[in-house]
UniProtKB/TrEMBL annotation:
Keywords for the protein's UniProt record, in alphabetical order: Ligase, Ribonucleoprotein, Ribosomal protein
One annotated GO molecular function: ligase activity, forming carbon-nitrogen bonds
UniProt source species: Embleya hyalina
Domain ATP-grasp fold RimK-type span(s) in chain numbering: 55-150
Protein name per the record: Ribosomal protein S6--L-glutamate ligase
Gene that produces this protein: rimK_2
InterPro entries named in the record: ATP-grasp_RimK-type (IPR013651)
Length: 181
């Protein structure tokens, strides 16, 4: 972790299997005047140690500056069936703020983002997935591929639902096809 923090200066640390953005930390390298330049301070080290003890492993990725939102996509089979922006509402821009829950907003799915989401879903061979993308300065960046989508009923038949007969129907189709249905 220290090597990543020293090289990238700004990182996100999270467990490999999480839920609802719980246990995610953003860490910035200490400045050159710090007693621990480029390394974790005491409090941060304790937090990271606690996460490691709870989850046994942590993922470290470079922080991607974004416009205060990320793109949530739902893929079923080889189709994108839903797409929306996960928007922060907190004054400090934090999407995981306990007093300012995130919001949802309509999103245009650009071809490059759609291609990235479909490729990312195909890598682990998932039939249903929910990739999260950030709009980075160089284009879309996949931050994670969730092997499920828990909020599907909240977006079914809304402006975010891109499937012709609803997300429930889209989920059932791949299950019924092998059964001859």
């Amino acid at each position: 972790m220290d090597a990543c923090l020293s090289q990238w200066q700004d990182v996100v640390v999270e467990p490999p299997h999480g839920h609802a953005s719980v246990d995610i930390l953003r860490l910035r390298a200490a400045g050159p005047d710090s007693p621990h330049p480029g390394a974790l301070g005491t409090r941060t080290g304790i937090l990271v140690g606690h996460l490691l003890q709870c989850h046994q492993a942590l993922c470290v990725q470079r922080h991607i500056a974004d416009p205060g939102r990320d793109l949530r996509i739902v893929v079923i089979g080889s189709r994108v069936v839903a797409c929306y922006h996960h928007v922060n509402t907190a004054p400090d821009g934090n999407t995981r703020h306990p007093l300012h829950p995130h919001g949802w907003a309509a999103a245009e799915l650009l071809p490059r983002a759609e291609e990235s989401a479909l490729r990312a879903t195909g890598v682990p061979g998932l039939d249903v997935a929910s990739p999260d993308l950030l709009e980075g300065p160089d284009g879309p960046v996949i931050t994670e591929v969730n092997p499920s989508f828990s909020a599907w009923s909240s977006i079914e038949r809304t402006e975010h639902d891109r499937s012709p007969h609803g997300i429930t129907h889209a989920c059932a189709d791949p299950l019924c096809e092998p059964l001859g249905g």
